[in-house]
Every structure is written in C-alpha cells, then in structure tokens.
Design goal:
mainly alpha, two-stranded antiparallel sheet, globular
Length: about 550
C-alpha cells in the first residue's frame, strides 16, 4: 500500500507527458474505424460489389498479405476485412513506443536514476508503464467500439473489433517492455519492437493467404501460420460475423507472460544496464566515418534497408497484380473508380495499380527520410551530438548532412521499388510502358517524400521536442489521406493535401504533374528556413 501514492504520482506525470500523443493515436483510430464504414457505404454500397471484391481476394490470396480475413459480404464483416489489421497495427505501434518511452528512454535520459534514488525501487517504473499502457489500450478499444456503434453497426461486432485491437496492443506492450530490458538504447528497443510488429503482421498475412477458401469465395479459413501471430488471433475473432472472443485468449496469455518477464528482469538488472551487452567498437574510426554525413549514414543504414525491403515487395506486386485487378475491375465498377481516383481517370488500369502501390512505396520513402532527421534529434537528446559539434563541424553543416542522408535514403528506397516493379514486368511479360510508368511514379514520390524531410528539419530547428511526434504524425496523416482517402470517399481536393497523394503520376504516355510545383516550393522554403534558423539555435538535449 505504501507504493500506491508513489505509483499514482508517477502515473500522473506520465499521463501529462503522453496526453497529446495518446489522444492522437486513440481518437485517430476511432475516427478511421467510423470513416471506414462510411467509405464502404459509398464505394461498395451493394452486396454484389462486396462479393466481387472478396471473391477476387480469395481467388488471388496474395492480396490477403495486406488485408484482413474475409468473413462474409455483410457491411460489418466487410468493414472488418478492410480495417481490423490496420487498427491492430496502430494499437501495436502505440503500445510499443509507450513501453520503450517510459522505461529504456527514461534510463537513457537519466530520469530513471532520480526515481530509483527514492524509495520507489526499480520495479515501480516498469509496473506503472504496464498499467499506463493497459489503460491506454482499454481506452483505445472502447473508443474504436464506440466509433463503430455510432455509425450504426451492431454492438457485439463493434465490441469484438475494439477488443481485438486492444488485445494486440497488450501483446506488444509486453513485447516493448521486454525489448527495453534486452537492448541498451531506446533506438534499438524501438527498432526491435517495430520489426516484431511487421513480422507478426506478415506471418498473419501469409497464414491467411495459405488458408482454405469457402466454396462461394466469401470466407477464408486461416492456415496454421496465422495462429503464430497476434494479428492472426485478432482477425480470427471475425467481428460482425462470428464475434468470437476465444481467439484472444492466447493474446492475453502472451501479454501476461511478457509483462511478468519484464518485471522480473527490471528487478534483477542495474538501472541503465541491459540483458544484451553492447559490442566493443574499434579504437579508431574508419576513414569512411570521418564526416557527419558518413556517420549518420552508418547509423541509419539498418533502418533504410528495412524500408527498402518493403519497397521491393510493393514494387514487385505493383506490376504482377495488374491482370488480377483488371479482372476484378471489370465486374466491380466501385473498385475501378477508387483506382481512378488514386491515379487518373484517363490512365490505364495497369498504371492505376502501379500508382496505388507506389503510394505505399512513397510512404516507406517518407519514413526513411523523416527517420534521418529524427536520428539527429535522438543524438542531441542522448548527448552524442556534442562531441560531433565540438569539432570543426558546424550546426548548419550537421543539419545539412542529415538532410542529404535523408534524401539519399529516400532515393534508395524508391530505386529499389522501381527495381522490384521492373522484375515484375519481366516475370509476367507485362507491357513495356510499365518501365517508364514505374520511373515516373517513383520520381513523383521522391518529390513528395522530400517535403516531409524538409518539414521535419524545420520542426527540429523551431521546436526540438516536437520533432518525433510531428515528424511521424505528418507522415501518418498523409498516409491515411493517400491510402484510405479514396476508400473512405474523401473529396480529391482533401486527399491531395497529402504530398503522397499529390505526387506526379504517369498517365498514358504522359505525366500528370499534379502538385509538383507547390511541393518543390514547400521543400525549398522549409529547408532554407531550417538551415537559416539552425545558425542561432542552441543544443536542446532535454527530451
């Protein structure tokens, strides 16, 4: 009982720090869930249109790598097919980042030492992070359910949808707490968390793709790999169809085991230590590490490789699924209309499919670019920027090097995407003009992705503490508008507020430049302002 006041005080402090971030995560997910229903009513308003899309997905199961588990053509079940994996993904990311932020990041900043110096002990911060994360996931699940109920969907299915997302969030809350015990830095712990989330998402998709379809091609029974993934457990609750809560029992069990493991580890290890020790580096840096740009590239290379791997897969699919989607579009005018909104009304369907996938590749590229700016903010917080700036490297050169590395990372991700698209054309004997279309689409997304890098750099100079939430937040909002805008029935003008959706695209033998000029102007203005303001900006190491 004596720990309750200390726990309450620590929880209150963390809630004040997390208030805005949690509101964005949770309210954004609830709005997305409600908007998905409105989008389905608009774009797939007939039972025949929904049945056509589900039949195509089950006949060509590679589509299930990126969607949920088909459970019928009813409005609710169809909404769950489209949105449940993404709601679970949001809950997982929110929970992992929360867990690392309040454990390993606290130890890195030295704040954990201050708490540990009191009578609170070493386990209390982890215990409070666990309770804080559990409460956040409960609110997440509740608001998602209320959002679906508010638009008129059945209450049981809405509650199961919320519970599925919250269950996945609890699993990755425990996973994030374990990662914070294993790795020495918050950067490594967050990387491990995101990697685990993406692997779990992919495993569930593979299990769904290898499943057994029903005779009418409206329902898929998952194969065994799906049951190895928290996303698979969530999808097999089948909201608005079976409304089964039993598949969530493994999620609760795994979340409990991971949380207990994190608590036991925090009790045994020293503050600041990790279960996995750091490798000893060489006494002298290699010649390729003697400039700020080369050092930043070395630090970013692993993340860029991960984004490039996703781009390669998306690029390959962009030119291999064209014939599949053409067959679907012939029987489903709603799908063809969505692709036309994403691309251009007078472009070919193959170009529309390619453009759609390059929107996804553009998101990967934007993430790689923003990550380069976030990286120098992390270096600043951790104190490792000071030794660099104590040399002849000035602050403007340091920021300029980070921006240059980010642009190189963006270009590399998009180049890999183009290479994947070209391999797809070769493998399927596709139309030769798709080579040009891939290059044009990649060029357009290059312009779009650099907008986010420039804006993140400007935020870094004006409000350092906001670099991480605003940098990633801008990409998230743009991704929702670019990927979900057409599905949700949003007007073109609103969707194209996102640079990703406003990027130049191929149209027939030409190019629709769309928002090229305002994006170039925004990038130039934001980057110029950032470099100018950086001359007077002092280091801000406080997190």
């Amino acid at each position: 009982m004596t720990d309750l006041p200390r726990a309450a005080a620590l929880a209150s402090q963390r809630l004040r720090r997390d208030g805005v971030q949690l509101i964005l995560w949770i309210v954004g997910a609830a709005v997305l869930a409600a908007a998905a229903y409105a989008g389905v009513q608009s774009a797939f308003d007939s039972d025949a249109a929904r049945r056509s899309l589900l039949a195509a997905a089950l006949a060509n199961p590679v589509i299930l790598l990126f969607r949920g588990l088909p459970s019928g053509a009813g409005e609710g079940a169809f909404v769950a097919f489209l949105i449940v994996p993404f709601l679970c993904l949001l809950a997982a990311l929110m929970s992992t980042f929360l867990a690392v932020r309040h454990t390993r990041a606290e130890e890195e900043s030295g704040r954990a030492d201050l708490v540990g110096a009191t009578s609170a002990g070493r386990m209390l911060p982890v215990a409070v992070a666990l309770l804080h994360g559990a409460a956040a996931n409960t609110v997440f699940a509740t608001l998602v359910a209320l959002g679906l109920i508010a638009v008129g969907l059945p209450v049981p299915g809405a509650l199961v949808t919320g519970a599925a997302a919250g269950g996945v969030g609890l699993v990755f809350l425990g996973f994030g707490l374990i990662a914070a015990q294993v790795f020495r830095t918050s950067r490594a712990a967050n990387t491990a968390g995101v990697t685990g989330i993406l692997l779990a998402y992919l495993i569930a998709g593979i299990g769904n793709a290898l499943g057994t379809p029903s005779a009418d091609l409206q329902r898929m029974e998952s194969a065994w790999p799906t049951w190895l993934s928290p996303f698979g457990w969530a999808e097999n609750t089948r909201p608005f169809s079976d409304d089964a809560l039993a598949p969530l029992l493994p999620a609760l069990g795994v979340a409990l085991l991971l949380s207990l493991g994190a608590l036991a580890s925090s009790h045994r290890r020293d503050v600041g230590a990790s279960l996995l020790g750091e490798r000893t580096g060489p006494a002298e840096a290699h010649a390729t590490l003697r400039s700020p740009a080369s050092l930043l590239w070395r630090l970013s290379a692993g993340a860029v490789l991960a984004w490039s791997a996703g781009a390669a897969l998306a690029g390959l699919l962009s030119t291999t699924l064209g014939s599949v989607v053409e067959e679907i579009g012939a029987d489903n005018p709603a799908l063809e209309a969505i692709l036309a909104q994403i691309s251009a009304a007078d472009g070919s369907l193959d170009q529309a499919v390619l453009t759609t996938f390059f929107v996804m590749i553009g998101i990967f590229a934007a993430c790689a670019g923003v990550q380069g700016v976030v990286r120098i903010r992390q270096e600043e917080v951790h104190g490792t920027a000071e030794p660099v700036l104590a040399t002849a490297v000035g602050r403007v050169r340091w920021l300029g090097a980070a921006a240059a590395v980010s642009v190189i990372a963006i270009a590399l991700v998009l180049t890999v995407g183009v290479a994947g698209a070209c391999l797809g054309v070769v493998g399927t004997s596709g139309a030769p003009d798709l080579y040009r279309s891939a290059v044009v689409a990649a060029g357009g997304q290059l312009v779009a992705a650099t907008v986010f890098t420039a804006l993140a750099a400007l935020v870094f100079t004006l409000s350092p503490r906001a670099t991480l939430p605003l940098g990633w937040g801008l990409v998230a909002v743009a991704a929702v508008l670019g990927l979900f805008g057409p599905i949700l029935g949003l007007p073109d003008d609103l969707a194209r507020l996102s640079p990703i959706a406003a990027a130049p695209i191929p149209v027939g033998d030409g190019t629709d430049i769309r928002g090229l000029w305002w994006m170039l102007g925004t990038t130039a203005a934001a980057m110029t302002a950032a470099l100018t303001l950086m001359r007077r900006r002092e280091l801000a190491p406080d997190g």
